[in-house]
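Human: Here is a favour to ask of a fellow structure person. Comparing notes only helps if you start from a blank page. Give me a protein, with the fold worked out from its sequence. Please set it down just below, with no commentary around it:

Assistant:
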Amino acid sequence: MFRNFVVVAVLLPLFACAASNVNAQSYVIHELGPSDSTYATARGISDTGLIAGCYYEPSHLTQPVIWRLDGTPTLLSSGPTYGAVARDVNNSGQAVGTYDGNPVIWQTDGQLVHLPEPDTVWGSVPCAISDTGWIAGTAKVGTTGRSAAVVWSPELSPTVYGTGPHESYSISDIDDSGVGVGSSTYGYAGPAATVYHVGVSLICGGFGGPIALAYGISDSGYICGLISSLPVVWDPYRNIISLEGYGTPYAVNDQGLAVGQYSGGAVVWNINGGRAALPMLTDGSTSIAYNINNAGWIVGECKDTGGRTHAVLWEPVPEPPAAVCVLSLLATAAAFVRRKAHPTTPS
């Protein structure tokens, strides 16, 4: 009886440890470069391992760039200019952003194409592109200080939401079916978390309730954002998953993992809402995570103690399968029990 009790006493903490290790995910941080730039940022990442961003050159011009997971850069053919940034990239290598103050798409061959803007808006800033070619961005409406959401089809035809005299709309992300998410206000109401699709905007939070904002959407239907300044994820059925603590989630992947910032540091939330801090560079002071792909790779930026901002990539470290952990722990427990059953006799 005592021996069985000893076995249970040994196994219980070991299995608890195994469960903890299997559910935990650790990350390694990598700087994307260049090392001599005073400012670099990574904003979007595709499932094929392409990373969109930009960096300042010594001339103070901005160079839009696509990095690979190993840090290899491809300079976009338009070259450096003032305010150029690639904000997102899809699996085929199409990237969107701004160049000389204009909304643009870089095609897979690097060709720069200006995105058309309707006469009702100006100053569009594309921020997301889906693998099917849908593009989302936010534009200005006249001189009113209000904004409008713009969705470009794969054929680059724009649809505008929110140009009325009492409306202000924005859009942050878009999925493969052309469904975008963002926020909207009407008069003194809102802002409300908003879903955009085929010319119609739908409210998924706010307007008559708590203030809500939506920032990211996955192809599986997860949406991340804020309700009353608290981080949340809406699941594909629009049930609300509360995320631990405070902070702002900016992107979510198909598995429901959300990334963003909390208290000056980049963080990741799991599907159950638990939060974990992402590592900083050795001399890092603050960091922020902007995007995550379906393999769990995360991109963003990290500011060092000298004031320079670095584009960074967080690589998920593979964890051993649960079965391997359990078998290893069973072997350890068995060895312990054998030692108890056959103690060594002192010579």
Summary: The chain has two domains: 1-24+321-347, 25-318.
